[in-house]
Specification:
The chain is α/β, with parallel strands linked by helices and about 325 residues long. It is about 35% helix and about 15% strand. The strands form 2 sheets. An 8-stranded parallel beta barrel has the order 1-2-3-4-7-8-9-12, surrounded by 5 helices. A 4-stranded antiparallel sheet has the order 5-6-11-10, with no helix packed on it. Helix 8 (about 225-235) packs parallel to helix 9.
Length: about 325
């Protein structure tokens, strides 16, 4: 059965207790805080963070945070040192027993929105994207980045890190480009389609080379998200999932509450059951609800609690057990 997780900060906050109180036992963690000359990918910071979560009743299942990787993505001088850092992280994750690393291959900017305060249901604040508003935006400072450049740099990266990940017993879960649209401001985005994900898996076949299936992005790539879950699930390549939804098209969309988007969420849950997915799934982006702060758009505490309850209800309906 799927395991419901939540992304939590490395140091205790009220959110730790809130998600524990609604029955979440698994954590998606950031890179840990450090002491003295330590680096976040060193053994001791990872161990302390894991022990802190364990003491609060959580199991750390995924690290969804990355060391610097821009030179590696661009394939320029200095990339080997960045890749060495990733190898250290993977080795130490294996030593402390954290089984999945979620990474991405978005150069120069991560997820992009043109609004972080669009009015959603009942006046909740949601993030939105309208490509027309950035179509003629100035190019990014590093200049044009091509598909070929990113595919070449990704192949170089994976050839270095996959043997390390295999030895460490850590799975690599590639997150989609958000939005899955290319190019944006002159920068190509290669993790933007179901076909490109298959290319990733086929490029270097390995039991640790797989997918972070972010539904909010994949539902903009395909009209059959449950079928896509089954496609990659039958290959055993879904290592981690983001359970969220949007309304609109890849060029113009807004995020939604989990129960009002374009996706058949119940059928997605059935698909996870059909493929025997037993990894962790987290709510991911949520609207900012009344009484909460929009200082960190998409990560409202109250919205997360609604999402967790909704997902737990779907899981009980599909799996027939709590």
């Amino acid at each position: 059965m799927i395991k419901i997780a939540e992304v939590l900060p490395a140091n205790p906050t009220p959110l730790w207790k809130m998600v524990k109180q609604v029955g979440v036992d698994y954590v998606v963690a950031p890179l840990p805080p450090t002491q003295g000359s330590e680096k976040p990918w060193d053994y001791m910071p990872l161990l302390r963070m894991k022990n802190a979560f364990n003491s609060a009743g959580f199991e750390v299942s995924v690290i969804e945070s990355r060391p610097p990787l821009e030179k590696a993505k661009l394939g320029i001088e200095g990339r080997d040192a960045e890749i060495d850092t990733v190898c250290q992280l993977l080795e130490n994750m294996g030593r402390v027993g954290i089984p999945v690393w979620c990474y991405e291959w978005m150069s120069q900017f991560n997820w992009m929105r043109t609004s972080t305060a669009t009015l959603g249901r009942g006046g909740a604040l949601v993030t939105a994207f309208d490509f027309e508003q950035v179509r003629n935006a100035p190019p990014m400072p590093a200049g044009a980045v091509t598909d070929e450049q990113l595919w070449d740099s990704l192949a170089y990266f994976l050839k270095r890190v996959i043997p390390v990940a295999e030895k460490a017993g850590v799975k690599l879960a590639m997150h989609p480009d958000d939005p899955p649209l290319s190019p944006i401001r002159g920068v190509a985005r290669i993790m933007r389609s179901v076909e490109n994900y298959q290319r990733l898996l086929d490029m270097i076949p390995s039991p640790v080379n797989g997918i972070a299936l972010c539904q909010g992005n994949f539902t903009l790539m395909t009209d059959d998200l449950p079928g896509t879950i089954r496609k990659f699930g039958k290959q055993g390549k879904i290592f981690f999932a983001h359970f969220r939804d949007v309304r609109g098209t890849v060029e113009k969309f807004e995020e939604t509450f989990h129960d009002e988007g374009k996706t058949d969420m119940l059928e997605c849950m059935r698909a996870y059951k059909d493929i025997g997915f037993e990894g962790v799934l987290r709510p991911d982006h949520v609207p900012t609800m009344e009484g909460d702060s929009n200082d960190n758009p998409s990560y409202s505490a109250i919205g997360r609690l609604f999402a967790i309850g909704y997902i737990k209800g779907l899981r009980e309906a599909v799996y027939g057990q709590r």
